[in-house]
Write a structure and sequence with these properties.
By secondary structure, the protein is of the alpha/beta class. It is built from eleven helices and eleven strands.
């Protein structure tokens, strides 16, 4: 069998990168020629984890489109996403073999039946760890480290409402294999990821961004996790200009940016021009200065995207 690329979504986060690494490792142990891939550049948090556990970043895969009809289709396994707009470019031209996820089921289509596993847990690496156990495979120290990094990231060290007891149990078991104090390591990793005040406005505007579609309308929603919102607030005008430019370029209905404080566990949801009414309707709150304050909101998947999708889908 030819190479199979395991890849997460565009604008990859730690879960997406780690899932490509962990699931490709598992598939190799089971006899598949699987290669970890990524559809974008790792962020600071992910780089911290990769460096700490001395793991190479997955290979960059920017497109899987064929140059001609005679070319063999690229074999792909999707992890941590299933919406077409979040996939690597050219995905409709690829041969998708499997899909492992923990998000809502979106608009993804395949030509043939495939293996799909979507479970409602806080992190796709929790799902993948279950497959390790099911197949009697133990992850290496390095892979276990990446897996626990992903779960800590997606659950914000168990603070997110998406976190389940299964996520917590997985982290504790993986920490034993990786040989780390998960609480200390987790906070160090989150701090490294939150230190993004030196990013230019353009990069901040598109940090961890995903596209969504509902009712024939496409919008984007990014997220910045920080421990102090002031450095980001100081760049708000430039960040919003970059968001507006991208919205116009890609013909989005709107663009949103979650500025999430992981210490106070709340979010300021910024939005582009024309999105005020939709935002207020989605969250039942008044907007001020182009944003809505959302206390105790940390999860895009559970606490933000579903409400926006409902409004745009009407």
């Amino acid at each position: 069998m030819s190479k199979v690329y395991v890849t997460g979504h565009k604008s990859p986060d730690t879960d997406s990168i780690a899932a490509a690494i962990s699931y490709s490792y598992l598939k190799r142990q089971l006899g598949m020629d699987a290669v970890a891939a990524r559809a974008g550049e790792p962020n600071k948090e992910t780089k911290f984890a990769l460096d700490y556990f001395k793991v190479e970043a997955p290979v960059l895969l920017t497109s899987v489109a064929r140059k001609s009809e005679s070319d063999e289709k690229t074999k792909i396994i999707l992890v941590d996403h299933n919406e077409s707009k979040q996939c690597v470019d050219g995905i409709k031209d690829a041969d998708v073999l499997e899909l492992i996820d923990h998000h809502r089921l979106g608009d993804f289509e395949t030509e043939s039946p495939i293996f799909i596993l979507i479970r409602p847990v806080g992190c796709v690496n929790t799902v993948i760890y279950g497959l390790y156990k099911q197949n009697g495979v133990k992850p290496s120290k390095e892979v276990a480290g990446m897996m626990l990094s992903a779960i800590i990231s997606d659950t914000v060290l168990f603070r997110s409402p998406t976190c389940t007891e299964e996520d917590k149990k997985a982290v504790k078991e993986l920490a034993e294999i990786a040989g780390v104090d998960y609480e200390k390591y987790g906070m160090d990793m989150l701090k490294a990821g939150a230190d993004i005040s030196d990013y230019p406005a353009e990069k901040l505007a598109h940090n961890d961004t995903k596209e969504f579609e509902a009712g024939g309308k496409t919008f984007s929603c990014g997220q910045i996790s920080v421990m102090d919102v002031e450095p980001i607030n100081a760049k708000k005008a430039d960040i919003m200009k970059a968001l507006e430019d991208t919205k116009a370029e890609k013909k989005y209905e709107a663009s949103y940016l979650m500025v999430t404080n992981i210490l106070t566990e709340d979010t300021y949801l910024w939005f582009t021009e024309g999105a005020k009414d939709a935002s207020e309707k989605a969250f039942g709150k008044k907007a001020e200065n182009g944003m809505i304050y959302l206390p105790k909101v940390m999860s895009r998947k559970k606490q933000v995207a579903p409400f926006l999708l409902k409004v745009y889908g009407e």
